[in-house]
Structures are given as C-alpha cells and as structure tokens.
Amino acid sequence: MVKVKNKKRNTAESVNDKKASKNKKVLNPFEVHINKEKIRVLGKKAKNDRGLPGVSRAKALQKRKNTILPEYKVQNKSNQFTDKRIGEKNRSLSADEKSIARYTAVRMNQHKKKSIYNLADDEVLTHKGQTLSEIEKFEDVPHSDDDDDEVDGQRNSGRLDSSFVEDAHFGGGMLKKADGAKSHKDLIEQLIMESKKRKAEMQKQKMANSDLTDKLDSEWKDLLPIVTNSNKKEEELAAAKVDDYDKVMRELKFEARGTPSDKLKTEDDIAKEEKDKLERLERERLERMKGNVFDAASTKIVHRSADDLDDNFAYDSDTPDVTLSYNDGKSNVPMEDEDKEEENENEDVEEEVEEEELETESEDDMSDLKEDEESSSEDEDIPIVEAKVLSKKESATKLINGKHKLDEPEEDETKRSKLDIKDPEKIKEDLMFRKEMMEEARKELPYTFALPENYEQLQELLKDKPSHHQSVIIERMIKCNHPSLKEGNKDELGHLFAYLLQHLSDICCDIEDCKDVKHCFDVFACMTPQFFDLAQLNPETSHRSLIEVFKEKQAEYRKKPTKFPTVEVLLYLKLGSCLFSTSDFRHLVVTPSLVFMEQMLTWCKAKTRANVAYGLFLVSLIAEYTTLSKRYSPASIKFLCGILHMAIPKVTVRQIKVLPPFKHISSSLVLAEQVETFDNPKLDVTDLIDVKDFDDAFRIKAINVSLGLLKYFHSNCQPLSSCPEIFETAFNYLSQLPKENYPESLSKSLNSFLETLDEGKNNRTLEYVVMEKKKPKALRLYEPNIVKIFDRKMHKSQSKEKAERDKLLHKIKKEKKGAIREIRRDKAFLGRVKINQKIQSDTVRKEKVKKIYAEAASQQCALNAMDRYNEVRSKKR
Description:
The chain is an all-alpha fold. Among the domains are: 284-306 and 318-443, no CATH class; 605-764, no CATH class. Helix content is 57%, strand content 3%. It is built from 28 helices and 12 strands. The chain has helices at 7-23, 53-73, 95-112, 132-135, 162-169, 184-228, 234-239, 244-253, 267-289, 336-360, 367-378, 392-398, 418-422, 424-443, 455-462, 467-480, 489-509, 514-537, 539-559, 567-579, 590-603, 609-625, 634-646, 696-717, 723-726, 728-735, 744-762, 800-876, and strands spanning 33-34, 50-51, 126-127, 130-131, 150-151, 154-155, 302-304, 321-323, 326-327, 330-331, 399-400, 403-404. The strands form 6 sheets. The protein has a two-stranded antiparallel sheet. Strand 5 (150-151) and strand 6 (154-155) form a beta hairpin. This is Nucleolar protein 14 homolog.
C-alpha cells in the first residue's frame, strides 16, 4: 500500500472543494434554455448558446421596479422634497465637516449686515414697479372721518375721551361728584352730542381744505408752463406725426376679437347666410314697391293681460310680449277695435284725397298705389306688414336712395296724434313721398335671380344694363344658387359660365368705334371676379368651355394666318391667365393659349397702327403668363425686335436684316423730328381698332412699351448663359435708333438698357466643353490574391460608403425593434401595477362596505328589539 504524503494538505483541499460545491448554486435543468443554431461549427465558442429566461425576467422586473415604478408614483405630482442644506449634495464630506461649513456660512452672513437691527439693507421694496420712496409723496392723502388728530388736547374722532373714561369707568362718577351728579344715561347722551358736534366741525374744515387744495392745483397747472419754460404750442403738438408702429398697435388693440366658443363658419353656412340676406332685401324692395315700409319692429304687438297664465304657451321670437299699461287712460298697446277704426278713417281720408286729385290733377295719378295695395293683399308668399304714415323728416332718415335701413328704430305709433292722420295735406305729402319711394324701388336691381335656362334668358337680364349692373346681377345669381344650397346647381353654374363666354363674344362682335372697345373692356373687368367664382365652383366645366373657345378661335385664325383676330380673342386669353395657374409645366388651358399667342406673333403682319398695338398686347400677355415660370419666349423677342426695326431710319445703300413677317424697308415707326415731351407713355385700349395713320405720339408709346417689355424679358433670361446671344439682335437695333429725336427720359432709358446689355456681354465667362476626366489606372503590382470565404450569406458588391450606410441602417432597425419591445414590456408592467392597485382599492372598499352593512344590521337589530319591547309593553297596558 502506497503511503500518502502530506495528508493534512490533501484533507484541507478536499474540505475547500466541498464548501465550494455547497455554495455553488445548482441550476435547474428545466430553467435553462438552449439556443439552437442553424449551422453548428465545431470548435467555435458560442456566447449565447444557453440562457436563463427566468433569471433575466426577474432582473428586468426588479429594474423596472427601481426605475419606472417610482416615476409612475410621482407622475402628475409637482411637490418634491429637496435638501438644500450645505454639504448634503457632497457625499464625500463627513458630518463634522458639514457642520463646520454651515457654521462658517452663518458667521459670514452675520458679518455682511451693517447693524443687527437692519434686517434688509440691500433690498429695495417696490409696489407696481415703483419704489416706496417714489410712492410716498403724500399727495392727495385720503381723509377719513375717524382720524385721530387732536385739537385742543382732545381727539377729533368719535371715540370716548379720557375724561369720560376716567369718570365713568375708574372710580369717579357718582362717588366723586355727589352734589349735582349726572346719571350714566345723561353722560352718554352728552358724549354723543359732543362727538357729533366735533364731527360736523371737522367735516366742515375738511371741505374747506379740499376746496382750497383744488383751487391751488388749478392755479398751479396754469403756472406750470411758465415754471418749466415749455413754450410748445398746441398746434405743434397736434401736428406731431404718430408713429406707424403705434398706429398699427392701436388698431390691433381695438380690433374686434372672436371668443373661443364662436363656431367657425363653413362655406355652406356663408352661402346660406348670403342667400337669406338677399332674399330679405328683395322682400323689403317688393314692400317698398307697394308703398309699404318694411320693418321688423312694425309687426303687431300681442296684448298680454295681467291674468294671463301662459295657457297654450308657444314661444315665438318674432312676436314681442308687452305687458299692458295705461297712461292718462290710454293703453300702451292699441286694441283691435281701435286699430280697425283708425284704418277705416285713414282709408276714408285717402279716398277723399284721391278723388280730389283725380278731379284737379291728371298728371299725378295715385291709382298705382291702389293697385299695389290690392296686389299685396293677394300675394301670399310675401309677408304683409302694416304701412306706417311717415313724415318727410322720418322718411328721409330711413330711406336713402330707395334703400330702407332696418337698424334705425321707427317712431312709435302711439306718439302720433289722430289730428295729423286726418289732415288731408299731410296725407297727400305722405302719399307723394310713397310714390317717389315706389319709383326708386322699381329702379333698383332685384336682389334674387334664378339661373337662366338658356342663353336668351341671360341676354334679357343683361340687355341695356351698364357693366357694373351686369356684374351685380351675376354675383347675386351665384350667391342665390350656390352648389351647397341645392343639388344640381353646380351643373347649372357650369352652363352659366358658358353663357357668359358667349355674352362676352356677342359684345365684342358689335364693335364699331372706340367707345365700344372701352365698353367691352369695362364689362370684362367687372365680370372677371364672377368668372373666377364660377371657375372655382365648377372647374371641369370651365376648363372644357374655355378650351372649346380656344379651338374655335384658332380654327378661324388658320383661315387667315397673316391677320390678327378680333378683340374678343385678347379678352379670352387674358381671362385664361386670371382663372388658371400659369406656373405649371403643362396645363390644360394655359399651354394651348400660350402656343396660340406665339403663333399669332410669328405669322401675323404688323402693317397698321392697330396691328402694332395688338401685337404688343399679346407680348404683354405672354409676359404675364411667364411671370412665375420664367420661360423663354422666342416669338415675343422676335416681335419686339421687329418693332425696333420699324423705328430705325433706312438708308438706300445699307439694308438691315429682319426676320419675317417684318419687311426690310418698313419704317412706319421712325421719328423724323425731335419730340421733347410725351404725356401718356402707355398704349390705350382705343389703339386696338384705331384706323388712323402712325403719328409721333403713337411711335413714342410703341417704343416705350417695347423697351419696357425687353427689360422684363431680359430680367427673366438673365440667369441663362445664352442671354447675350438672345438679346444680340435687340442690342444692334437699339444702338441704331435715333435717340436724339426721342424725349430725354426715353433716351436715358435706352442708353441705360444698352449699357446693361453691353456689361452683361463683356462680363460673361465662357467655359469650354471638355471631356470628362477618367480615373487613371493603377500600376500592376504583385499583391496577394485574397479570396473571401463563403459564409452562406449573400453579400452585395457595393462601395465602402454604401456598405457602412447599410450597416448603420441595420443597426438602427435592430435598435428600433429592441426599443419597441422594451416599451411594450414597460407598458405591460405598468398595466399589472394598475390592476393590482385597482384590486387593492376594491378590496378596501368592499371591507368598508361590509363594515357599514354590519353596523347597519346591528342598529336595525337593536331597533327591532326596541320595537318588540314597546309592543309587549303596550299590550300589557
């Protein structure tokens, strides 16, 4: 048998191993989760091959209890306890060091104070932005009747004086003065009389002091300008200009504001309100046509007696309730019999006046009033309102230009006497005024219009109407037939848009002189807002109608491509820019109209004065179309260059080239003589059909307008690298114009534009077209051929930057999924906490309810026992 060496050592090691094995926690094999791998690699160490979900879950739960649960408990709670003592935040200090630091701070604070009695030396007390020293000026000190000022050693207040207190309360009184002593009641009465007397004297003195103070203040204000040497006059102060910022601030300050409870009106609500307003105004107009003055306040007042108990009550906001009262035996509410008598008397007087007028005067016939009154009684749709007999002063304040003001209250009928009503002259004046009012109402435009069924009905409405009246008619027609008010109005308004286009065409077809052209443009200017509203309400129909018009006009133009079309084409093109967006790359209406204008500028000849004006109008329309898009229009630049060519004097030896349809020898716009001034620098509408020859005024206006359009197009094309080439022809033509014959302002403008073009041409830097440089090939070197190991993953062949970006995106996605998972678990944890709290609160509540029921049962038991005892006792008796 082998002898064991160092037996003690071996026994010690065995004991340690046993202790370690005991302390080592034995894992439950059912708690261990083995993570399987798709591809098992031999010899590869895996970090996450085994996991303990129970342990991880417990750790996560404990972590949430330490972090989320305290935050949840203090949620929506603002109170917190913070220890601001010196040294508490610094945990490295010991208790003794903290006490020493606090003692030092206290001693330093004591040394800062100048005196032990001065508690706040450096603090400045303020009230409403002013210090107490500024406030305590003792100006206009409020006086009180209970001041404690002493006069002649006695107080002026109504309090008990010292002598009375000494005699009545402290041993004096009856004992001190036995002979002729007064009773306590007499003493009190005497004291009251003296106090009242003192108060009256003090009040009188205060009033005198107040009057003297006011007088002194007024005199001081008069002397103040002299003392302060302020010699400013009132006119200078009034003439001082108000700052614009202050003016805007005052306007914003006093501007009407809405309340948060106010409901914002929708488009349908606004349309309904507009329709109701127009219908109300139309009813008022019809009433005025019949001689009645429409007023909501003139409705009949319903009598309510004192015994009315509101039986069969039904609220009606239009009928005001008035309590019956009497003044000098007359009621404030006219009774039905009195009303009938007054109406009969009025009718008799009117009949007498009418008979006298028929006999004496045939021109002033009042039969139309009678007919209107009969028609008003037969009409059921219009509410009948009792007409009041108005004097001329009252009617002048309430009827201005045939329009009735509803906001001004009328005079009460009870204030008018029966003598005035029975006066024939007064009735005659009132009837004459009513006739004038009816004539004014007939002249007014109706406030409500139905949509026309065909074009002929629209022509009847607009026939012989001025332009502003036509605009008002269409506007009211749109408001009364808004698409939100009735189904089918949208399609009808689309038809109205087409009818208005036809109406515009018919007006332009009858042009004979300059007045007709102005009338066409006035109608167009007034109708443009209505065209825009109709295009917004039904955009599909408006697009389709305008496209059809452009197709028709372009087909007519192709028959004679060298002549400009009629004026109506200009109006349609202008309408397109007003209704639709001109900044789109391709638009259903704007793009064809732009092509149409460029065709006309390319092929139409500018022979007459009207042709030149027509072409310049088209160029201005193109400028308007390209304001936002900044597009280049070669036809516009070519036409403007042609206009400049027509203004260059031609020499037989030298020919100046120009593109067709302009001719080389054309010189209609040449200014032969010098013109010093020109009044109107812009073209007029009448120039579109003017058949006169070219004169100096038109030549100057044409050159001025062409120069302005060239400047505009140059500002649009300035960012382009080819801008000098585009305006090279214009530069050559401008340099050959006879500038000495033009007015000074126009010649300066020409020279400045020439300098701008020359400067842009000289300062431009041209970059040559160069082939793209290729990356040089690397030298062929001996490098190891590195072959990537295939790891069963699809790797994309991409650049390093893109690979890094994909890697970051993958990390972001992974972190996002992890964050969502943690948020979901936190939400579940808080849900469990809330459920536990609810269960605990329900348990406490149930216990309390049980306790209450038990106490109530015991009380009921005691009550029942008492009742039984009383019953037994009563039976024994």
